[in-house]
Amino acid sequence: MAARSAGILLYRLEGEGGVRVLLAHMGGPYWASKDAGAWSIPKGEYDIDAEGALDAARREFREELGVDPPDAEYAELGTFAYSSGKKIVVFVADGAEFDPAADDLEFGEFDMEWPPRSGKTARFPEVDRIEWCTPDEARERLVKGQRPALDRLLAHLAEL
């Protein structure tokens, strides 16, 4: 079975019809010098038999950013498939009260062999920075498999 992930796409409304979404730049040496296609919503894998998707999305937000997701009303935006077959369930919430500058962010970490084939293990942050982006910025920065979630969010907000 293909891997399952769950994540939270926070948005905030600004000015007259302006929207910003919260994206996380993926950490580690592979992504360090990349911008286009190197950002993601805070998300991670979960076992659908052991945990609900929203619970997993909240847990992963906390693990990746080191802070709890906002206490807000969450809506399931949909499930999106990557070209690899992996699926991600995306939840959205108004993140107007979420201020990354004010919060004490402590990014989660992972271990990997680095440099490649060296036999040495190095520790890297899962995320190395987060940023509020316009939809146009987000469309260029997001990994390809998550871009449909951005389009669905904009359609969702237009219906409100």
Automatic annotation (TrEMBL):
GO terms for biological process: AMP biosynthetic process; ATP biosynthetic process. Pfam families: NUDIX. GO terms for molecular function: bis(5'-nucleosyl)-tetraphosphatase (asymmetrical) activity. Residues 1-155 form the Nudix hydrolase domain. PANTHER family: DIADENOSINE 5,5-P1,P4-TETRAPHOSPHATE PYROPHOSPHOHYDROLASE MUTT (PTHR21340), NUDIX HYDROLASE DOMAIN-CONTAINING PROTEIN (PTHR21340:SF7). This is NUDIX domain-containing protein. The lineage of its organism: Bacteria, Bacillati, Actinomycetota, Actinomycetes, Micrococcales.
